[in-house]
Structures are given as structure tokens and as C-alpha cells.
Amino acid sequence: MNLDRRSFLGQLAALPFAASGLAMARPVRPRSLILVWLDGGMSHLDTFDCKPEASPEIRGDLGSRRSAIDGVFVSEHLPRLAARLDRCALLRSVSHGEGNHDRGSHLWLTGHRPSAVLVHPALGAVHGHEEGAVLPPYVAIPAAVDYAGAGFLPGTRGPFAVGGDPGQPGFLVRDLAPAASRSRALQLRAAVDARDGGPRGTHEAERDRFVSMADKLSGDPEARRWFELAAEPAERREEYGRNKLGQSCLLARRLVQGGVRTVVVTDTGWDHHTQIKTALTYGFPPKLVALDGALSALLDDLRRTGLDDSVVVCVASEFGRTPRMNPISGRDHWPRAQSVLLFGAGIRPGVVGATDARGEEPAERPIAPEDVFATIGAALGIDPELVLHTADGRPVRFVAEGATAVHEVLRA
């Protein structure tokens, strides 16, 4: 029997004891999350829930193609992803009532309905903040959108934003290496603190934690190397696509490989109220082409590096788009139906739920964003009963009351 390296290691790890009597097991990496956030509201009808039999005003002007999953049609502009869809979990019946960008983002990124008195923390502000880590536990590429921050938790739980455009030649994270004036600046800060004379407040303590985290990272060249896209082979960079989204996803893979626990990759420009066909198929590269290349390369790369056993990937946005095209060939906000893609660690491939013939609302198995949040938490191994506390000691559940993980897509 012929075994490839991955199968051999998997069978070896399954053996309870080696001949010597010593236990044999592969080291278990803590799980990480890559969230690909399509900011603006991805149209489910033009991506992962195409309706080729619907009337023109529903199916739109973009063609569709069969995927690797029987009966599932996706955009004709997602050929690479269509061929790999049987390695993913596709949730096609996600539905909620938040049709505003801000409110939808808060719901999705924090797992809680918006509140007038409380901003909840994003998942990355909770997950994986172990003491002593050199790399930031939570990174945003290129920047954090609203409600992807620390919420009511200390500011040190917020994401480290790399800034810039990873798709540009010569991309580097600014100010990552220690500046020549660093030592003098720290001396001046210490002198100012010494002159204060009063008790240290929480803001000063938080500032000092930020400085300590920055010192660890800037002082460790090996840790900084994980941010260097130039270290990747040219052919791998081409697989992802030499564009902002593609290179952002490649950088995310590098960072989770180095030990970062949550990476949010944000791709803006998915709010298509006018000329949606042009918006999705025009550009350098076109929107759908970039998404197809980035996600399919990430799927392959996680398997190649063995990280598909330790990295969860979620592709989502605030809401879906209206089933009927509007008079200016666009689609408006539509929270009653949207699609979400999951793959990687702890995720069982398959399709859960379906929308009706118009893509208007769930026809079966309605799923709330809070349920998806609970599902991701379960795949990462986060205790669903975890309780967080606000600055004044108020207890707040990490998983919203009543939220239930989508167990059909979770491996036992």
C-alpha cells in the first residue's frame, strides 16, 4: 500500500504506542482563525447560492456553474473554488434582521445583537491571549473594521493592524523593526512618569502593556519574519494572486503558521447597489476573480502545510443582497438570506440549509449569525459557557443566550 507523507503521519499518530513502549503522537497546535470579511454585503445570489432556473430579474446577469457538490451552483467566475467546494462547509440559510452596515457588522463580528449601552468584543479579542506570546494574538489585515475591536475588554485585546496594501510590490509593515531613537524615547517616557508622582491609573497600566507587547515583537527578528511576504516563493504568491486580497490571505496563512491566533482579512467594496455585474467582474483583478484565487489557494496551502488541522477559515459579510435586481442593475441590503463558507480545522464539509427558489429567505434550517459565531467558537475549542466581564464587573456571556452551534458542520 502506498502512503503519502500526510497519510503516513496520520496513521503513525493514531498508534497508541511505538515498539519501544513510548507513546507516539503528533504535537497538537492550538487552533487559530482566519476570518475573510467581505465588507459591504456579499450577494449570495451572485456567489454561492446561484439560481440558474430563476427569472432574469432574480438570477441577474452573471452566469453560474456546477460545483463539486451535487446540486450546488456557484458563480461562473469562481471556477477554482467550485472545484474545491466539497472540501468546505457551505451554510446557505443564514438569516437575521439587521440590514444596516453597522448593526450587521456588530452582530457578525461579536456574536451579539447591537446594544445601546455596550459594545461587545470581537472573537479575536477573546481567543488565544496567552501570556508570554511574542507575536500579537490578534491581527487585522490591512486594518480593523468597526466592531472588530476589543469592545468592553481592555484595549490591549484589540487587533494589531498591519496597514498598507500587501498586494503592492515591496510591502512591509511600517515601524515593525525597532527605531534608532527607541531607547531615548523610552527614557523620556520614564522621566515623565517619574515626575508624575501620583498613583498609576488603568490607562497608564494599559499603555505599559502595549509598550511591552511592542518591545517583544520589535526585538525579535524571527517573530518579525512572519510578516515578510517576500520570504514566500514567487510561485506561491502567484497562486494567491498578486493583488490585495490574495496577498492578504497569504500573509494571514504565514501569521497563523507563526502562532497568531486570530487574523481578520478585510476586503472592502462589496456594497453593490448599482451595476453589480460590472462591479464584480471589472477591475485589476475583478472582484470575483480575486476571491476565487485567494480562497482556493488558501484551501490548498493549509493542506500543503498541514495547517488544515489547526486553522479554521470563515468567509462572511454583514448580510446578503436583495433577490430582485433594482432599476439600476444592483442589489440592495438583504439580511433575510445570505451564504457563509467555512473550512479547515474541526469543520465537516457539506451543505447546510437552503433558500427558496428566489433566494429570498431560508426554505429549510434557518441559521442566525449568533449560531455561526458559536460554531466557530466550538471549532476553536472555546468553552461555550465562557463568561466575560466588563470594566465594572458586569458578567457577559461570550456566546449569546440561545445561540446554538451548527453541529452538522462540526467534526466529532
What string, H for helix and E for strand, traces the elements in order?
A: HEHEEHEHEEHHHHHEHHEEEEEEEHEE
CATH architectural group? 3-Layer(aba) Sandwich
Major pleated sheet: 8 strands, mixed
CATH topology: the name is Alkaline Phosphatase, subunit A
Gyration radius, in Å: 22 Å
End-to-end gap? 28 Å
Figure out the total of helices.
12
* Poorly predicted spans: 1-24
The residue-averaged pLDDT reads: 90
Overall shape: globular
Strand-residue fraction?
A: 15-25%
**Count of folded domains:** 1
Structural class: alpha/beta
Which CATH C-level class is it?
A: Alpha Beta
Instruction: Please list the strands of the largest sheet in the order they lie side by side.
Output: 6-5-7-1-8-11-4-12
Question: How do the strands and helices of this protein lay out in sequence?
Answer:
Blueprint: H1 5-14, E1 32-38, H2 56-59, E2 64-66, E3 73-75, H3 79-84, E4 89-94, H4 101-110, E5 138-141, E6 160-161, H5 182-196, H6 202-218, H7 221-225, H8 234-240, H9 244-258, E7 262-267, H10 276-281, H11 287-305, E8 311-316, E9 320-321, E10 333-334, E11 338-344, E12 350-352, E13 354-355, E14 362-364, H12 369-380, E15 387-389, E16 395-397
Helix pairs in contact: 4-12, 9-11
Write a concise synopsis of the structure shown:
The chain has 412 residues and is of the alpha/beta class.
